[in-house]
From TrEMBL:
<comment type="function">
    <text>Catalyzes the reversible conversion of 3-phosphohydroxypyruvate to phosphoserine and of 3-hydroxy-2-oxo-4-phosphonooxybutanoate to phosphohydroxythreonine.</text>
</comment>
<feature type="binding site">
    <location>
        <position position="100"/>
    </location>
    <ligand>
        <name>pyridoxal 5'-phosphate</name>
    </ligand>
</feature>
<protein>
    <recommendedName>
        <fullName>Phosphoserine aminotransferase</fullName>
        <ecNumber>2.6.1.52</ecNumber>
    </recommendedName>
</protein>
<keyword id="KW-0718">Serine biosynthesis</keyword>
<dbReference type="Pfam" id="PF00266">
    <property type="entry name" value="Aminotran_5"/>
</dbReference>
<comment type="similarity">
    <text>Belongs to the class-V pyridoxal-phosphate-dependent aminotransferase family. SerC subfamily.</text>
</comment>
<keyword id="KW-0028">Amino-acid biosynthesis</keyword>
<comment type="pathway">
    <text>Amino-acid biosynthesis; L-serine biosynthesis; L-serine from 3-phospho-D-glycerate: step 2/3.</text>
</comment>
<keyword id="KW-0963">Cytoplasm</keyword>
<feature type="modified residue" description="N6-(pyridoxal phosphate)lysine">
    <location>
        <position position="199"/>
    </location>
</feature>
<dbReference type="InterPro" id="IPR015421">
    <property type="entry name" value="PyrdxlP-dep_Trfase_major"/>
</dbReference>
<dbReference type="GO" id="GO:0004648">
    <property type="term" value="F:O-phospho-L-serine:2-oxoglutarate aminotransferase activity"/>
</dbReference>
<feature type="binding site">
    <location>
        <position position="198"/>
    </location>
    <ligand>
        <name>pyridoxal 5'-phosphate</name>
    </ligand>
</feature>
<dbReference type="InterPro" id="IPR015422">
    <property type="entry name" value="PyrdxlP-dep_Trfase_small"/>
</dbReference>
<dbReference type="InterPro" id="IPR022278">
    <property type="entry name" value="Pser_aminoTfrase"/>
</dbReference>
<dbReference type="InterPro" id="IPR000192">
    <property type="entry name" value="Aminotrans_V_dom"/>
</dbReference>
<feature type="binding site">
    <location>
        <begin position="239"/>
        <end position="240"/>
    </location>
    <ligand>
        <name>pyridoxal 5'-phosphate</name>
    </ligand>
</feature>
Length: 364
């Protein structure tokens, strides 16, 4: 039985990457050591981390005046690092189009009770269960604010931002965790991008931060571990980094570059692959997708429901038995969710559609 992993993260990794990691696991490039056990100060790992950065820079066309840092703590740690480093004494705006955006705003509010800055909820679609990306009037944004924070892809709700909003000249900071490398963004449109690796980049354990040099903090922070400038100047090696996660990420970057043909080709594949499932759902009067506007649809996370919660539960149980794993929707929204990240095979989408057709015929 073929297993298709629809997990929202940690998620499917490219098979060639896993095979290369397997082949090198005991003896990395004749070093006599595994990447799992070699020193992060060794010449072998120094080359790994530098190559990872160089390939990511090429893939995303990252300008020279941006630093690339590989950090720990997941995307969630960035919810606190951002205002701590960048917003003290200023306002910071939050566009909340999903649960993770709300968490970023909530953490900022919590931090503002001890650090002097003002987090402001710019707009939210929470009242409609985040079924669309909320709009706002740019003129309401103080042009002296530190940043506007947004989430480019809402993993739970299946919405995404592709065309960046007007922010009245205020720099944009983006949580790009769940669609980095799956859609083309112009890095120069952002002051800072952060992304947890465990969806489109690699295994859990490393977070990529891309930050414009003039946006780095001037003042030392509470902890060196939470200080962007210290981490950037140390080249991601201030302390022992998540070495194996960085190594797998490097292999994924190589895969996107050499086997896929780059981010634009990857984005094309993602649009076509997700489009197959969206087109079927649209043609069905049994399944529905909760995203209000087609332009807001994620190419990575596709939630859908049947006519009832009982049928949703039956669908998940039958799908799981047939090898469609982790397709149950997030507990906050229910239903189903097909996370079809970059490494997820097109055939898996086709096979899921075949099952959906069969399930509909039997339960309509």
């Amino acid at each position: 039985m073929t297993i298709y992993n629809f997990s929202a993260g940690p998620a499917t990794l490219p098979k060639p990457v896993l095979e290369k990691a397997q082949a090198e696991l005991l003896n990395y490039q004749d070093s006599g050591m595994s990447v799992l056990e070699m020193s992060h100060r060794s010449p072998e790992f120094d080359k790994i981390v530098k190559d990872a950065e160089a390939t990511l820079r090429e893939l995303m066309a990252i300008p020279d005046n941006y630093k690339v840092i590989f950090l720990q703590g997941g995307g969630s740690t960035q919810f606190s690092m951002l205002p701590l480093n960048l917003a003290q004494g200023k306002k910071a705006y939050y566009l909340v189009g999903g649960s993770w955006g709300k968490k970023a705003y909530t953490e900022a509010v919590k931090l503002s009770k001890t650090i002097p800055f003002e987090p402001i909820l710019l707009a939210s679609s929470e009242d409609t269960v985040y079924d669309h990306i909320p709009s706002f009037d740019p003129s309401t944004i103080d042009p002296e604010a530190a940043y506007v924070h947004l989430t480019t892809n809402n993993t739970i709700e299946g919405t995404a931002i592709y065309d960046l909003p007007d922010t009245n000249g205020v720099p944009i900071v983006a949580d790009m965790s769940s669609n980095i490398l799956a859609a083309r963004y112009n890095v120069e449109d952002f002051a800072l991008i952060y992304a947890g690796a465990q969806k489109n980049i690699g295994p859990a354990g490393v977070t990529v931060v891309i930050v414009r040099e003039d946006f780095l903090n001037d003042q030392p922070q509470l902890s060196a571990m939470l200080d962007y400038r210290i981490q950037a100047e140390a080249g991601s090696l201030y302390n022992t980094p998540p070495c194996f996660s960085i190594y797998i990420s490097k292999l994924v970057f190589d895969w996107v570059k050499n086997e896929i043909g780059g981010v634009d080709k990857m984005a094309e594949i993602q649009r076509e692959k997700s489009g197959l499932l969206y087109d079927y759902i649209e043609s069905s009067d049994f399944y529905t997708n909760p995203v209000k506007d087609a332009k807001d649809r994620s190419v990575c996370n596709i939630p859908f429901v049947t006519p009832s919660k009982d049928l949703d539960a039956k669908f998940v149980a039958e799908a799981d038995a047939l090898g469609f794993k982790n397709i149950k929707g997030h507990r906050s929204v229910g239903g189903m969710r097909a996370s079809v990240y970059n490494a997820f095979p097109r055939q898996g989408v086709l096979d899921l559609i075949d099952f959906m057709k069969k399930f509909e015929a039997e339960n309509k």
